[in-house]
Specification:
about 475 residues; about 35% helix; FAD/NAD(P)-binding domain; seven-stranded mixed beta sheet; five-stranded parallel beta sheet; 2 domains
Length: about 475
């Protein structure tokens, strides 16, 4: 560890001590009927959302937590696996995982690594550096993370939740008062794969979030579907790996030029959207989900600087089939051939497609049951989102179901319609963490309020300072 990083860690330790009041770890210890530990909070996902939330809980003095991630240590989230951009898309000044402590910020960590001038020269945060920062923060905080553990099921038991884990040593079950699903942009149903592409061999076709051996694409014809940033990232990666030609197809007649969603990036919206009534939430979200997002200019340029790249607007695919020697793709302009296809088609919101949530889905309330929706595409999307409370908690269809489901929180893309864009990504993360920590703290306290009162009513420990003053006065 460099001397500068050691100095930063000493500063962060001091900041945490300065803001440690009150220091008491306050949630009451809980055991199950068989005497085993019950966690206050189990967080499914140890990427940027999970780490940021865990830090916030520690600062709230909620320490009986466990983070679970299916990936190996240092591979959580997309940054060193399927994220194929070169840098984060957000501006470098954004915060979130730091939970408001300056020495925990990316900037402080980056300057400790590279110096202040390097920060001034930096335009966008390299994705590998962001991952290194998250790993450092996790290590410094000594977060209890269990890696290489897949969650196979979440079930209810009274007002608690049981989480079944499948790890290298076999299956085990833990109980929790709260479970937070912090599984990112792909964790609410998985990749959106067109029906015509399902069943094709992975040697011919892959979704942009799947493992792809780009070195094997050298000298090959690659076709990419989609006009989002991820589609362009994959096209660029294929070009840089030596693909003979990369042709990108999109349904829209032209690339959008205005990112209207930037208008919503202000603290008032991030903090308060969740307080709106359903009618106004629906009005915002209908427009939000109908607006196209242009690819970042540097991502577009990364592709266009290659002479063997071409973009085909107005040519969404209508079919695909494997031939004896290649892949045949049907487009409005006719059939085309490719050696490999990449689907930059985004992700779906479909909780039933997340196997570990399947048992709970029948009891969860969704937006299509809460409001009247049309049959239009955007309304169909909205209807698939779970209807969440202000702390991102699920709402049960019945009072009995709600007893446990109110303790299931979604800190991922499925919270968009109910909470706004503070559940995934970095932009709204500070407001998302604050809302979730406040909600969890509130629920844990209210659940134990009667017991706290009994402890309070029976409290009779002498105040050492008061006893000293009383003894001194008597001696005089």
């Amino acid at each position: 560890m460099s001397r500068s990083l050691q100095t930063l860690e000493l500063a962060l330790t001091r900041e945490m001590e300065m803001f440690a009041y009150p220091p008491r770890i306050w949630p009451r210890a809980t055991q199950s009927a068989d005497g085993t530990q019950v966690y206050d909070v189990v967080i499914i996902g140890a990427g940027q959302a999970g780490i940021s939330l865990a830090f916030g809980l520690l600062r709230e003095r909620i320490t009986n937590i466990l983070l679970i991630d299916r990936s190996g240590a240092g591979e959580e989230g997309p940054w060193v696996t399927w994220a194929r951009m070169l840098t984060l898309r957000t501006i470098k000044e954004l915060t979130g995982p730091d939970n408001g402590l300056p020495s925990a910020s990316f900037r402080s960590w980056y300057e400790a690594q590279h110096g202040e001038q390097a920060w001034r020269d930096l335009v966008r945060i390299p994705k590998a550096e962001w991952m290194d920062y998250l790993v450092w923060l996790r290590r410094f905080l000594q977060l209890p993370v269990e890696n290489d553990a897949a969650v196979s099921a979440v079930t209810t038991e009274g007002d608690r939740l049981r989480v079944t884990l499948r790890g290298s040593t076999g299956d085990r079950t833990v109980q929790a008062r709260k479970v937070v699903v912090a599984t990112g942009i792909d964790g609410s149903g998985g990749p959106q794969v067109p029906a015509f592409a399902q069943g094709l061999p992975k040697t011919l076709c892959a979704h942009s979030s799947e493992p792809i051996d780009f070195s094997a694409l050298a000298g090959k014809r690659v076709a990419v579907l989609g006009a989002g940033a991820s589609a362009f990232d994959n096209a660029a990666t294929a070009l840089e790996a030596g693909a003979r030609e990369v042709t990108q197809y999109m349904r829209r007649p032209a690339l959008p030029e205005v990112n209207a969603l930037r208008f919503l990036e202000f603290s008032g919206f991030f903090r308060n959207f969740r307080a709106l009534d359903d009618v106004r939430k629906l009005r915002f979200m209908r427009r939000y989900l109908s607006l196209p997002t242009p690819p970042p200019a540097d991502t577009l340029q990364r592709c266009r600087k290659h002479s063997n790249f071409s973009l085909k607007p107005g040519q969404g695919w209508t079919g695909m089939r494997a031939t004896r020697t290649a892949l045949e793709i049907a487009t409005p302009a006719g059939a085309v051939e490719a050696d490999f296809a990449i689907l930059g088609t985004g992700f779906k919101i479909d909780l039933a497609s997340a196997p570990f949530l399947r048992a709970l889905v029948p009891d969860i309330l969704f937006w299509n049951e809460r409001v009247t929706l049309t049959g239009e595409r955007v309304d169909s999307l909205i209807g698939n989102y779970p209807y969440l409370g202000s702390a991102m908690q699920a709402v049960g269809r019945t009072p009995q179901a709600d007893r446990a489901l109110r303790n299931l929180h979604f800190f991922n893309s499925s919270g968009l319609v109910s909470i706004g864009p503070i559940c995934s990504g970095i932009n709204g993360m500070p407001w998302g963490v604050a809302a979730l920590v406040a909600g969890i703290s509130r629920d844990l306290f209210c659940a134990d309020a009667d017991a706290f009162y009994e402890d309070f009513a029976g409290y009779d420990e002498s105040d050492a300072n008061e006893a000293y003053r009383t003894a001194t006065a008597a001696a005089n």
